[in-house]
Amino acid sequence: MSNFLQTALELAELGNAVFPLLPCGKTPLTKHGFKDATTDPSIITKWWTQWPDANIGLATGEVSSCIVLDVDGADGNSSLEALKRELGPLPNTCMARTGKGMHLYFCYPDGKEIRCRTNIARGIDVRADGGYVVAPPSVHPNGATYEWIGDETAFAELPERWINLLLGERWNTPDGNREKRRDLRSAVAILESPSPWSEAEEARVRSALACIPAADRQIWFTVGAALHAWGEKALKFGIPGPKKHLINTITEISAGRGRALTARTTASE
Fold it and tell me: In 53, 109, 188, 239, which residue has its Cα 20 to 30 A from 129's Cα atom?
């Protein structure tokens, strides 16, 4: 029995639905990908008999009763520490080293619906309903081996404030609103220094947008309208007027006038 098959069977016995991936890769080998994931040992044995070196895909979300925080590189580690300071510490839980970072496994919360999301903070994705992760002892495309790390093997419960973040409710509190205004002011400060369009200026805009709460659809609708008004040519040639419009948009949202601005922008489109 291959190590991959043995681990896949062990994961399935614990209630994790698994399926085969391309050896040294992340591409599913089955027709429907993570939707084919199962805990049935006979099907799992058949798969890994056919593809003995296949990596292990673990379907996340309610199907396996787990959520995974995918923390990627130095940016992800920095963001994770910042979120811990804001939302409180995370409990000890099952963790795995990946090709470029780590996976933190948590229990899927009862009565909630959490789907996959990218960039809840810089370098951090969420794998939940509608997704999957690559599980140890799979091999990353860069040659690194996925490995379980730490002494904890159980999936811990996520604290409520972290669940709210995954549900997109991070900012719906008085503290969150203050944090949101501060971040938006940071975005304006980054944009205020005008310069011709360049890679540096693009990086400045990206940094400003990174300050905006990812979970707030109302804000992003408004900012998206401002970006649309700016336009591709303005981005390319550094036209100052539309950029000022983006600054004004974010400033107004920061001052609490986002809803009215959204209505005006929508009417003008």
Answer: 53
Report how far apart, in Å, the C-alpha atoms of 74 and of each of 79, 87, 107, 165, 239 are. 9, 20, 25, 21, 34
Sheet-wide strand order for 66-72: 117-121, 124-127, 66-72, 101-107, 95-97, 147-149
- Other CB atoms closer than 10 Å to residue 222's CB: what's the count? 26
Collapse the DSSP code of 135 into the 3-class scheme (helix H, G, I; strand E, B; otherwise coil) and give the result: strand
Interatomic CA distance for residues 120 and 108, integer angstroms: 17
Q: Residues 134, 57: contact at Cβ < 8 Å?
A: yes
Q: Give the predicted TM-score (pTM) of the model.
A: 0.66
Check residue 100 and report its DSSP letter.
S
User: Which domain does 94 fall in, by range?
Assistant: 3-166
In Å, how far from its chain's centre is CA 53?
28
Query: What pLDDT score does 2 carry?
Result: 83
Quick one: 144 and 184 in the same domain?
A: no
Same domain for 144 and 217, yes or no, is no
Output the six-digit token pair for 54: 């296949």
Any idea how long the chain is? 269
Same domain, 186 and 243: yes
The amino acid that residue 202 corresponds to is E
Per residue in 54-88, pLDDT tens? Answer: 999 999 999 999 999 999 999 899 989 988 888 89
Residues 73 and 180 in one domain: no
Q: Phi and psi (nearest 5°) for 244? A: -60, -35
Which pLDDT value is given to residue 30?
Answer: 95
Q: Work out how many domains the chain is built from and give that number.
A: 2
> What residues pair up with 72 in beta bridges, in sequence order?
101
Where does a domain end: 166, 188, 204?
Answer: 166
24 shares its domain with 148? yes
Domain match, 98 and 116 both = yes
